[in-house]
Amino acid sequence: MSTFKDLGLPKWLCETLAGVKITKPTNIQAGTIPQILKGKSCIGGAKTGSGKTISFAAPMLAKWAEDPCGIYGVILTPTRELAMQIAEQFSAMGSNVNLKTALIIGGQSMIEQSNMLKNNPDFVIATPGRLAHIIEEHPDDVKGLKRVKFIVLDEADRLLTESFTEHLGYCLKSLPDGKKRQTLLFTATVTDAVRSLKDKNENVFVYELDKIDDVLIPERLNLSYILTPYLVKEAILHHLLTIGDYKESTVMIFVNRSETCELIKRILKDLNVRVTSLHSEMPQSERTNSLHRFRAGAARVLVSTDLGGRGLDIPSVELVINYDIPRDPDDFIHRVGRTARAGRQGDALSFVTPNDLDRLLAIEDRIGRKMNEYEKVTDNEIIKDSLKVTFAAKVDARMEMDKENFGERKQKLREKMAERAGNTVANGKVSKIKPKSKSKSGSKK
User: What ranges does the record give for the region Disordered, renumbered to this chain (predicted)?
Assistant: First the structure.
């Protein structure tokens, strides 16, 4: 087993890593750090929990320490929570060398963030949407981006999808040409879009521990499912968390929509489960506090949309529940990767309604494994212990959410974004704004 010193990292950085009990490189770190230090761009593919952040952070910090000049690197990632986690790791690794980082994410003051960029921090960790908006609104404050030496796309498979195309393109246009910087892409699933970077640049090396068609779910992760009618999902969930096998476990519950996330959190809270939530309609301060509470054990259950499905490192998670089956099998891989990390055992349990059968089969085909049916919950137990109380809690939660106009903020944001794009939103539908016709008096002769 090599050491970080063997990989070419400087003594100060090896000592910093040792200070946080990181002494032996993982496979992805050993395979990528030496090549990045040699000046090569990189595509790094390894399953979640394998230490990808240090794979790009360590060589970037090593090169920065040799010649710290302006904004040295930009790290882009799809979610605010992952950006915050990466920023914390950079701060910890640079604690002894006066490293300056800027966290550029939504939910915080754009003016303050723009001023941070104007002062040329050493590294910028950002979500593409917020960075693109600052570039558009405050172009004079981001001139330092033109001297960047590194660009990192973390969770690159997600960033290279249509939902990020516009903002990502805006960010990349403000950076140096690809030949004048190193580009590092890291992901758990190396898709064709990620791999295409290799075709565009000969100075790119690919280090892929788990090829996309290989098994991505470790054997120590137990996969099972519960066949359930849609109307009793809440009751089964309550039984599992309060009476069944997992009444003491640390649990992440994944749902597909923010409304479902908020509803489940309120139901469980009303039934005396220590629960918190994570979804896009929460203010950033609440999202941050929610993760802190879960990590600290103040809440043992976290209900989350796919905001919490990628990259987040919460080692204590013992069970992942897919309350809703994800539409994309790769999202299932990321979700269940929140447990069975760093050599630990873990369980993943999926609620399957009659409408979910095709999705379940697609997931099994993608991961190359069959799930076992979980048979420890009986209809009699659900009716006796959970059905009545969960129904009452659900009615109360719905009434509270209606009173608070839950979802109103999201609708306003949609209208604002549509207006920026030259569209209108009416009854949930987007339509183009017709351009105003010019009056004759105002027309050019």
Answer: 404-445
